[in-house]
What does this fold into?
Amino acid sequence: MKTINLGNTGIAVRELGFGAMYLPRISPQESDRVLHRAIDLGINYFDTAAAYQDSEEKLGRILPGLAGGFVVTSRSAAYKTGIDAFKKEFQQSLRRLKLDVIDFYCFHAVNQPSELEQALGAPLDFLKQQKEKGTIHHIAITGHNPVTLVQALKTGEFSMVMFPFNVIEREPLDGLIGTANRLGVGMSVMKPLAGGVIESKDLALRFFFNHPSGVVTPGMCSVKQVELNGSIFSRREALSTKEISALEQEVAVLGRQFCRRCSYCMPCENGIMIPFVHFIHMKCHGKPMDDEVRYTLELGKQMLPALEKCTACGACVEKCPYDIPTPQRVKELVDLLKSVH
It folds into this structure.
């Protein structure tokens, strides 16, 4: 498996990273098996977040026992609610991971200029203090809006940036990836399978051999997934012209109304988390009821009270750059969630 450098940080990792957001779906014992298999295959970059339920704890069962050689990233969105909440989540991450130092600590989901402004205040000062104390090595940023992330990188405050990039979401090619390369900022790719909606997993992951863009971190929660992804990245076969055409044809319908989670539609006056609506809708609506769909719908049930307040005012549609019919999807999702018992 290829080793790559994360910008100018001096840190080298395998090109395939481990996204831990799905670890909460499995037991601690099964998580141990999955993580050990990933390590056996050479994966040494692990990505998690304070918001990912018990994923930090599950990484904390394994990583501290390794003899070094791994890189871990975690992050918090609590900067949006105040510095005290942000500090609390940071200390919580250290405890859960059972580590004395976190390699990259990120501001989570910085999508709009106002959120970047929040992050660049007291929360950034706090992380700089932690860097001086040695509890983190680098400060990083994640988000779904390439325009805002380019603005963030130009401040010179961030050593790494994490963003969605895949055959559907190619917006980072228009400036973000080039800016990161020019400034020596490391890159981590989230949503390489577009949140799981791309069926041709092999082709979707091989897309990155045509567009090198840092460490690629698909979410994994089974030994089978780890072995499949490891095999793809070990072979490292770039897509042929014919395969590119086939992949683009597969995602053509998805791409026209695919939610990029850029958050231009937010906030909703009724408190609906619109990007999450689209995530669940894309994963579940019209799909056969399997374990993946049922698990996602169970997560979505907590949104029902807010969803039922939707007045179909259309403000979200007016603000959406992709003209996604959000009120229609809200109605369809309410019906779907109520049908699951």
In short: The chain has two domains: 3-240, 274-339. The chain is about 45% helix and 10% strand.
